[in-house]
Structure formats: structure tokens, C-alpha cells
Amino acid sequence: MKIIDNTSQLLGDDLKSTVRRGARLRIAASCFSIYAFEALKAELSKVESLQFIFTSPTFVPMDVTDRLRKERREFFIPKAARERGLYGTEFEIQLRNKLTQRAVARECAEWIRKKARFRSNVTKAPMQQFIHVGSDGNDAAYMPISGFTAVDLGFQKGDAVSNLVTRFDDAAHTQVYLQLFDQIWSDEEKVGDVTAAICDHIESVYQENSPERIYFHILYNIFQDFLDEVDQDALPNDLTGYKDSLVWNKLFNYQRDAATGIINKLEMHNGCILADSVGLGKTFTALAVIKYYELRNRSVLVLCPKKLADNWRNYNTNLTTNIFAKDRFNYDVLAHTDLSRTSGESFGIPLNRVNWGNYDLVVIDESHNFRNNDVFKDRETRYQKLMNKVIRAGVKTKVLMLSATPVNNRFSDLRNQLALAYEGESENLSRDLKSKTGIEEIFRRAQKAFNAWSELPPSERTAAAILKALDFDFFELLDAVTIARSRKHIETFYDTKDIGKFPQRRKPLSYQCPITHRPDVLGLNDIFSRLSILKLAVYAPISYILPSRLSKYEEIYDTQVEGGRGKLRQADRERSLQALMTINLLKRLESSVEAFRLTLRALGGNIAKTLEEIGGFERSGGSASVTDFLGEPGFDADDEDLAGLDEFTVGKKIQISLADMDLPSWKHDLEADLFLIRELVASMDKVGPEDDAKLQHLMGVIADKVAEPLNPGNRKVLIFTAFADTANYLYSNLAPAFLKSHGLHSGKVTGSDAPKTTLKKSYDFQSLLTLFSPRSKEKHLVLPHEGGELDILIGTDCISEGQNLQDCDYLINYDIHWNPVRIIQRFGRIDRIGSPNDQIQLVNYWPDISLDEYINLKERVENRMVIADVTATGDDNVLTAKSSDIAYRKEQLMRLQEEVIELEDVRTGISITDLGLNDFRMDLLNHIKENGEPDHLPNGMHAVVPAQPTLGLEPGVIFALKNIHDSVNVNQQNRLHPYYLVYVSEDGEVVVDHTEVKRLLDLIRSSCKGQAEPIQSACRLFNERTQDGRKMEQCSTLLSAAIRSMIEVKEEKDLDSLFSGGRTTALVHTIAGLDDFELIAFLVVEGAPA
Questions:
Q1: CA torsion, ordered 873, 878, 881, 884, to nearest 10 deg
Q2: Distant-in-sequence, close-in-space partners of 445: CB < 8 Å, separation ≥ 6
Q3: How far apart are CA 836 and CA 775, in angstroms?
Q4: DSSP 436-451
Q5: Main-chain dihedrals φ then ψ at residue 785, nearest 5 degrees
Q6: Are 695 and 733 in contact (CB under 8 A)?
Q7: How much is the pTM?
Q8: Which end of the chain has less neighbouring CB within 10 Å, N or C?
Q9: DSSP label at residue 946
């Protein structure tokens, strides 16, 4: 009898000397590892037989299948750890990370088939563990052992305090153990045979795996916490029957993923922002979510901009144009502006009696309109009313926000929208998230990072740079409450066979036309110079009040801003209004002669009327007073730049007694303006339609398009303008001409008056659009008896959002909007997935001056609008939170002349698309719903996929690792911690590092999803290269390169953090190296044979 201490003497070495050829080995132990087999391979291959009893139930079917899933899951975990022990326990990680387990497993399985039998304890009764070696004449027994692994043999270091084993040699002792073993072995009530299960299980390590299996194995590991949190309530309940609704069946696969994700987020966090990019059909996705909640008997309110109300009301009313009439939608629709009204009706709903607090779900379309949360002392803004009356009051309200542009250039935009979801109590959301930091703090840090980023030179100001600068918490937060995919993402990662493709975009055509070719009319530059000296004094009476009387007006009209932090002075408002009017005149001039003329006339009329009042006062004295024209500035309802006006007119007309004014100077300035305006009007009046160079050019372009269609037989043309006046002018000139020359019918829609067409009957808004785009609007269902069709549609921005007009393949911007986002939104009407057209064309009319002059002019005008003295609100400009980055906008407009850019690229700020991990969670859930929980696959398995450089899959390996010491999260950079993904190319360079989680998962998904069988050709190449998994050195070095890369990224970040303010991460945990990581799985990207 001797004691083996496993430090100076190892149990494994002792066994090597004891086990002779022909020995019979009996082992009772809790686990068996292939690495223990490898260590004793030479000896074990000589034995006659091995009988192995698992002392605790292992690989034995449990009779708990009928118990609840939760219980079962907990029950499996300890057992699963034992079963996985076959491929090495956690202390044998070094062995596993050599990646040779495949070759080891193959040899082990062959040996088991020949020589070994395994049985397992099937009772709950504990059993002792020991080894008995029987060979002629000298038996030996070892006791106690704790398992049959490389650690127990003493070859690897474990965490046990001591690992003493006693060896017995004398026959009396060994005989006792032999009898005990044989007695248990033959007792069928206590043990059951599991040899076949073991072989199958070990085989799973060396058989080829399908890429899909590895994909779900990785997802299952990464999102295990998510699965634990998701109870049945947080997933859409199929019993509601929402999957039978028309709208659900109309959705494409990516929209269904979004809808399921939205419901899950609404259930877990009460709020969600859907920010898919233009042309991906957000309206239908939202309708599917609404249907789900209506089926659960919830009351739904849709808040949308007035111009989109018709679109939403089309689906909740019994109309023939409603393709979802059978779904019986019954949500209410109100406009954003209705929140600030207290009387009157809106779409037949009396506003004084709306039961605001009774809505269970509020869907806010174009939710970026709620990004300002400024506080005024004397009124409740729309934002506050929405928050207080709708969301906080009454029943618990969930909020779904739809917006293609949720972040403009400040993160507070996003924070204010999110605040609607958590009722302004940020703790509500922080509780649900893993992050330790509060929401406000997360946003503050994000804004700080963003400000630093926006000051970088344009070459360094890349999307990747901002992603690196932002905190992990910020992504965690975004992921919890947003779903945002770009069109590139959908094309790359979804199977779009049944949906159709996006049409191919041709290079945009750009035209610059002068106002007219007549020599006796002022040119653009002359007009600009006259406009820039206009004082527009009629809009600024306060500037002419006598200094001694000024304080009386300041008291009445200046408004406190947000908690007394500063004043918005009436004089500043007027200055801004003057600037807005100048801009408005410029824009109208760019748009059309007609729009410019009409505005000039209205302006001249206002000035003349004011001068008359002054004349009357001077003649008769008395108490006459004037108002400023903030109330009715003669603007166009469709112009969104003026939407801000109602925010600062503050609902009061300003009455100024003429006796308090410096009349001579006001009168002098008014007369000077009037003279200039009359001169401009006289010049513009000379330009008739036949002299209007731009109009005539447009008619030529349309005639050419109709004569030579891009797509066979498609004669449709969609013309956008910013102003209703221009739309009316175009319609009255184009419609009769083309009806006569080509027999083409035209229609016109503007936000301000009833739709018009050249067809005999009159149509409403939706029907008119259906006649223009009969296929996408399903005319055969909604207007089956209408024979007519429209080929030319002239519209303002009231149709630039939320409409699907993809029958058309030719879009003309008759005036270029100053905001590139708007151009892209317009183009999104025809640039949509599933378009019947192969190619589409964008045509832009630019002002007849160089882009530099144009931008400089804009800059001059905009700089007049910056209100400098809004003290301490942090924003230097309340009126226009537009990006002041003129150079950037110039670059965008330049690009628009050459190509159609993605909405994501226009953002001066950040696109939040493609940061969320929702798609993967939904993949996993759907997989589990269909196939049940995945089997416990052994870790360290791999699949082989062919390289696809177009998708970014270069030859190399993508590793999925798990950090074992949970304390380590490299500077919070990894959202998946403790799981890490890294992509290393064949030559050891890091292709995608572990901080770009989304991109890595996308690559894995695009190469694996749907590949349910191993890809034999790729597997063959890999097996030849590695001799069936024996020569894994190359992969193994790549694995160490991968882990090194993580440590390097960490060190680089640490150094930065030492020198920047705030918390340092340099002295916090580091990753020690290979042994800190366990390999979950890896995906080999196999290049074509050389």
C-alpha cells in the first residue's frame, strides 16, 4: 500500500507502470475525458478490456420530460457538465485549445468500440469512485479518485486542495474492490449500459458539422441569459392568432423578425424605436404589431404628422382602398399638432373629450418630431402633453416610435424619444438593463464622445471611429430598445428571393437652368444681391420701439426657457423670422418663378398695409397699434423648415402701440423694402411659362423619358417640389400639354388643397396615388372598377414619406431641398425592395450657380439665424438644430450629383442602424420554437464554410471564445462578455476584432444560416490541410493571435484612458492569455485551393 500525492508522484505515471498487456481495467468515476485517454493511449491500447461505471447518472434518459421546461433546464446543468467532461473539463482547457480534440476523439471512439464498455448509475444513490487493474497475479486498486481526467491523473493542474490517492496491492484489499465492482456492474436495477451513447457523443466531435449547427451553438451560448429572461409573455403569443391576420402574411421575412422583436421589446421595456431605413416598409411592420395588441384587446393610438394621417386612416376604416379591411383595425389616428390643441375636431374625434390616459399602445410615426423637450413657463408643449396626459396618466402605456432619423446631431434627441417609453423615470429602464450606469449618464457620456468625434478632421470622422469611442453601455441601451436595419444589411443577410431585389440606381442626372433666356430679366446673382439687402422690417416691429418704452414690452413678451435658465427674447424671435423669410424667398426662387412671384406679392401687400396704418396714425393720431406678422407670414404649409415657427410664436399676437415706436426710421426701412420688392416683381412678371427655361427643359425631359422608357412600357414620372405654389404651376402647364401630345394623364397632390387629376372624376388622396401606382397599391383589389391610370404625378413633400409608389421608375426633384435627407426620402418612394423595375433614375434640378456659391449663400443666410444670446441652454441655436457643418452638407450635395447616397451616409451624425443584435435573438428563438432546445453540443467544434470575399469572408478562422474568469471584461468594450468573437485571417492578421460584435455575428450568420448540411467540398480541403484534424498547429496559432489581439486592443485603450479624463481602465483586470479562454466553437473560412 502506498500513497500517491500527485505532485512528486503522479497517478498517471503509476498506472502506466501497472497496466500491462492483457490487463482488465475497471473504473468507477464521475467522469471520463478523452484527454485522459490520450495521456494513457499507449497503455490503454494494450489492455484486454475496460469496464467503466459513471458513478452519477450520465447519458441516461431522465424521466422528467413531462416536467416543466425550466426545471428540466436546471436539472440538466450539472449533468451536462459531466457529459461535456468527455471532451475535457475546465482545467483541461489548454489541451482543448490545441484544437486536436477531433483527432483524439476519433482514436478514442475506435478504441472504445473495440475494448470498452460503459455503464452508468441510474439511481440517485451515491457510489464510491475507484480504479481496479487486474492482470495476472498482481492486481492493484486505487482509491479515492474523483474522475478519470487528465487532472485526476496529475497531468494537468486542478483547483483541488489536495489530490491524494492510495494504492492497494495486497490481494485481500483488491479482491474487495473487484467484487464490489462486479456486483454493481451486473445489477441491472442500479446501472444501465451507455456505451452507444458515449460513442455517438464522441463521434459528434469528429464528424463534420453543418454550419447552421455551429451558428446556433454559438448563439445559444451567447444569448443564454436572454433565453432565461424571455418568459412566454415577452414573446408574441401565437394563440392570439396574429399570424393569421392579413397584415402578418403580407410581411416579408425581415419585417416579421422586426415585428417579433418589437413585441418582445415592448413587453420587456415598454418602448421601442423602429428605425429601419427608407424603403423597408416600416408602416406595415408597425401595423402587424398594432394588430397583435388589438387582438389582445388593447386600445391603440397612432400619432403622426398631419400629412401622413391619410395614409394611416386608410387602414383603420372600411374603405375599398384598405387592403387590410378584413383585419378590422380600429386604432385611433391623431396628428402630432393635435396634442397642442384643446378644442375643435380632428378626423372626427372631438379633442376636448379624448380619453388620453386610456391608450395601451401609442405608435408615434416620424417620432423625431418629439426630440425637443424644452420647457416654457406659460404653456405645455406637445412633448409634455404627450408625456403627462397620454403616457403617465391612466393605464400603463407602451410606446412604439417609427423614424428613419432618430438621431439628428444630439443624443438628447434619442434620449427624449426614449424617455417617452420609460415615462421620464429613467430608473424604470436602468433596472431592466445590465448596465450599472444610469440612462442620463450613458447619454451624457455618449454626447461627450460624439462632440469630440465631430471635431475630428473629416478624414478621421468615420463611423468606425465613433463606434470605438462610445461606451458599451450605450450599445446595450440601443440594443434593448431599438431595431434599425439598413438596406445593405437586408440585402446581405436576408434571403430576398421571394421579395425581389432593390432596383439598380442609375447615376443621377443633374441639370442647371437659368430663370429665363430673356435678357431683360434679372439674373440669379442680381436677385440674390437684392434679397440680401432686404431688411424685412415689417417682421420686426420690436426693433423700432423707442428705447424708453422697451422694457414694458419685454416684460409682456419675453418667454422663460426651461427652468429659468435663460430667455428667448421676442427681438431674437423677430430676427430669426426675418432670416427665415429671406431663406423662404431664396428657396422659392430656386423652386419656380411662380412661387417666388406669389410670395413677393404677399410680402409687398403686408408692407403696403402697414405703411397705410402708419399714414393713418400720422394723420389722425389716436391709439392705433400694429401686430407683427408672426401669425400669418404667408408661408407654405408644406415647408418643413418653417415648422419650427409655431414653437416660438408662443401663441400670442404682439400688439405694439404706434405711439411707442420710432416711426420715421421704421417707415423709411419699410419703404426701401417695398421699392426693392416692386422692382423684383416687375422683373419676374415678364417671365411667362414659355420663357421659363426650367419649365421648358422639364417638359423636354419628360417627353424624352416617355419616348424611350428605362423599363419596357413604363411611362410613369414622379415630380417633387417643396412648394404647393410650384406644384400648382407645374400642373397647370404640364397636365394639358401632355394629355394633348402623348395622351398621358396627370395628377397633383399637395398638403394644402384637394388632389386634382386630368381624369373625368375627382379622387381623394389615396385613390389618386393608387391610380398612379396600381401594382404596389393593389388597385385590382381596392379600385377594381376604375379604368383610368395616371402617368405623371406632381407632389409636394406630403407624399415624400410613408408611400410606396414603386410602379414608377423616374423621379424628378424640380427643386433641390437644402436638406439631403429629404431628397433621399423622396427617392425612397420608388427605390424600394420588391420593385418591378430593373433600374430607376433620379433627376435633380440645381440652381444655376456653382455649388460653392450656393453653399456660401446658404451659410450667409443661416448665420443670420443663429441666436447668440439664448444663455446657457447649451444649444447655441434654438431655432435650427440643423447641422452647422456646412462643409459636410456640401460634400453630401456634391455626392448627390454623382450617385444616390444611402440615408445612413447622409447623417452628419450617427446612424444607429445595424448596431442591434435583435435579428440573432429572433433567429435563436425561432430555432428553439421549431426544434426545441439545442442538444448539448460539445464545445470546441467547428464547421467549414467557403470564402466569399464579396461578403467580407476572407480565408481565416472566426473563433467564439468564453472568458472563464468572469471578472474580465476588457474595458467594457465587448457587449457579449464573457463571450468573445474574433476573426483572424490565414496569416494571423485580425480581420475583425472583438469589439465589432454585430459585424462578426453578421458574417457568421450570412455564411451559416440555411446551411443545414456540411459543405463537403470545403470540409475536404480543410481535412487534407490538417490531416483530419491531427495537424492543427496553424489554427492553434491563429487562436493565440486572436487572444493576443484582444489583449492588445485592451492595452491601447488603457493607455488612452490614463491620459484622458474620467475613469482609467489601465489598472483593472487584464486577460492573462490563452488559458483564460475556453473555445466554444470556431468557423473555418476555407479559401479556394491554390
A1: -90
A2: 437, 471, 473, 474
A3: 9
A4: SS-HHHHHHHHHHHHH
A5: -100, 5
A6: yes
A7: 0.69
A8: C
A9: E
Average pLDDT of the residues in 758-770: 85
* pLDDT, tens digit, 9 for 90 and up, residues 520-568: 888 877 887 787 778 888 877 777 888 888 777 777 666 554 444 445 5
Q: Give residue-wise pLDDT tens across range 301-314.
A: 998 888 788 888 88
Tell how strand 140-143 and strand 165-168 pair up: antiparallel
Of 1010, 1029, 1017, 1025, the residue nearest 946 (C-alpha): 1017
C-alpha closest to that of 698 among 743, 740, 729:
729
* Consecutive H or E run containing 1053: helix 1033-1059
CA distances from 718 to 510, 871, 900, 902 (A): 16, 46, 16, 20
Q: 316: which residues sit within 8 A by CB, 6+ positions away? A: 322, 329, 330, 331, 332, 333
DSSP tag of 208: P
The set of cell numbers assigned to 963 is 472568458
Q: How many CA atoms lie within 13 A of 124 on its CB side?
A: 3
Higher per-residue pLDDT: 775 or 68:
775
**Is residue 724's pLDDT more than 80?**
yes
Neighbours of 571 (CB within 10 A): 19
Question: What distance in Å separates the CA atoms of residue 333 and residue 349, rounded to the nearest whole number?
Answer: 9
What is the rounded distance in angstroms from the CA atom of residue 945 to the CA atom of residue 96?
22
Omega before residue 503 within 30° of 0, cis: no
Residue with cell 419703404: 671
- Strand-strand pairing, 130-134 and 24-29: antiparallel
Estimate the crossing angle of helix 253-269 against helix 918-931, to 10 degrees: 100
DSSP state of 847: P
Closest listed residue to residue 1063, CA positions, set 441, 431, 426: 441
Return the residue matching grid coordinates 427681438: 571
The DSSP bridge partners found for residue 24 are 49, 134
Contact by Cβ (8 Å): 833, 254: no
Distance between CA 348 and CA 346 in Å, rounded? 5
Query: For the chain, how many helices (H) and strands (E)?
Result: 39, 33
Phi-psi region of 344 (alpha: psi -120 to 50; beta: other; left: phi over 0): left
H or E segment and range at residue 1018? helix 1016-1026
**In whole angstroms, what is the distance from residue 364 CA to residue 399 CA?**
7
C-alpha cell at 1087: 479559401
Question: With 80 as the cut, is the pLDDT of residue 97 above it?
Answer: no
What 3-state DSSP class applies to 992? strand
CA 215: distance to chain centroid?
22
SS3 962: strand
Q: What is the overall mean pLDDT for the chain?
A: 76
How many Å apart are CA 1031 and CA 1023, to the nearest integer? 9
Of residues 127 and 648, the one with the higher pLDDT is 127
74: helix, strand or coil: helix
Residue 70 CB neighbour total at 10 angstroms? 10
Instruction: Report how far residue 115's alpha carbon sits from residue 48's, in angstroms, rounded to the nearest whole number.
Output: 7
Residue 166, φ and ψ in degrees, nearest 5: -105, 135
Residue 647, amino acid: E
Amino acid at 548: S
Give the single-character DSSP code of 969: -
Mean pLDDT over 919-932 rounds to 78
Contact 909, 205 (CB under 8 A): no
- Report the alpha-carbon distance of residue 1055 to residue 892 in Å, rounded: 36
Q: What percent of the chain has pLDDT over 70?
A: 74
d(CA 660, CA 548) in angstroms, rounded, equals 9
Instruction: Name the grid cell of 599.
Output: 410670395
CB 304 within 8 A of CB 367: no
Which tens digits make up the pLDDT trace of 433-475? 666 677 778 888 888 887 777 777 767 766 667 767 777 677 7
Integer Cα distance of 647 and 376 in angstroms = 10
